[in-house]
Specification:
It is found in: Endomembrane system. It holds the Pfam family NMT1_2. It comes from Tropicibacter oceani. By secondary structure, the protein is of the alpha/beta class. The protein has 17 helices and 15 strands. A six-stranded mixed sheet has the order 2-1-3-10-4-13, sandwiched between helices. Strand 14 and strand 15 form a beta hairpin. The radius of gyration is 20 Å and the shape is globular. The model has no long low-confidence stretch (mean pLDDT 96).
Length: 391
Amino acid sequence: MKGATLSVGFMPLVDAAPLIVAQDMGFAAEEGIALELRRAPSWSSLRDMLSFGQVDAAHMLSPVPIAAALGLGGAGAPLSAVSVLSVNGNVIGVSRALEQRLRDAGHGFDFADAGAAGRALIAVAGDRLRIGVPFPFSMHAELVVYWLSALGYAVPTRVDIRTMPPPLMAEAIAAGEIDAFCVGEPWGSKAVENGVGALLLPVSAIWAFSPEKVLAVRSDWAETEASLTGRLIRAVWRAGRWLADPDSRVLAAELLSRPEHLDLAPDILDRALSGRLVISSRGEERAVPGFVEFHKGAAGFPWRSQAEWIGRHMATRLGRDPEAAARAARSVFRSDLYRAALAGTAADLPGASSKVEGALMADSPVSSPRGSLILGRDQFFDGRVFEPLAE
């Protein structure tokens, strides 16, 4: 099937980089495919484009295929996450009014301590907190709820979660429609650049290694187009490896900045790629090593345990059976297809497909066929661990 063209939907975010790089740097062509990239206006439209066959694959919020498996968010085809596209990469920001109240209360905006930042936010939030997220089924929503709930905040009664497309987040906080947001880069930096908000935390301060975006396809397409699915996984894996090289960063920012991709200046995109973020209109900078990961620590591996975590927390938040949700979710992250696609490449994959989440307090070597795999620190800010179901 040499020369096949795959239509792939994406949202204008830095973490769409593996798809953009796969096409623009020739990794897709090495697999005998071309990617026709289609920019979507919102996550709901992108989900529907994929579910109803308008695109073959999509850059997708990791909880969306799981929500589809749980029958949430409307009718559509079953979806499979065949690779993780990115780990971390989101920021939590606050309005200028909240920023001032936090500073008046002595908060130092260290951009690192999720416990201290959360307690400070709760103390100045007043009776109700309006938080913007890009979609109801997103790591943004799950991690914000996890974070504030763990600190004792009555999320169901005191937090109003509002959804809006990422490019509109800065406008929403400028208009006073929300008090805070959780959004992928560069849209948090855009709020800072526009002088309408300040950044409080990277989400990696809440969960150090959370699966943010996945490469999603319809489950029936993955079965009938197994060869194309494998080629696509390999092209994206090679793109992630290229992105992990610090020498690629300048060119990556230039590729992403093109009008047909993110249409923003390279310097604002470089903040996420370099992990050096400007967090306020005062020009304060904070360094976040591994702010967004595309390759290191087997970042692309679709861990079934991570899917279980998402399914269980989503179900708890929405009043569903968490045990049943965890069982349904684990089948959505297709570590089997990922392993099959990368067999025979230089990829060193973990021996297991599930692990205890939150147990790694530092980067740690793990069992793998080549003996070279090091997984990244994956702690939760409150020290909890998540035990998955037995494989």
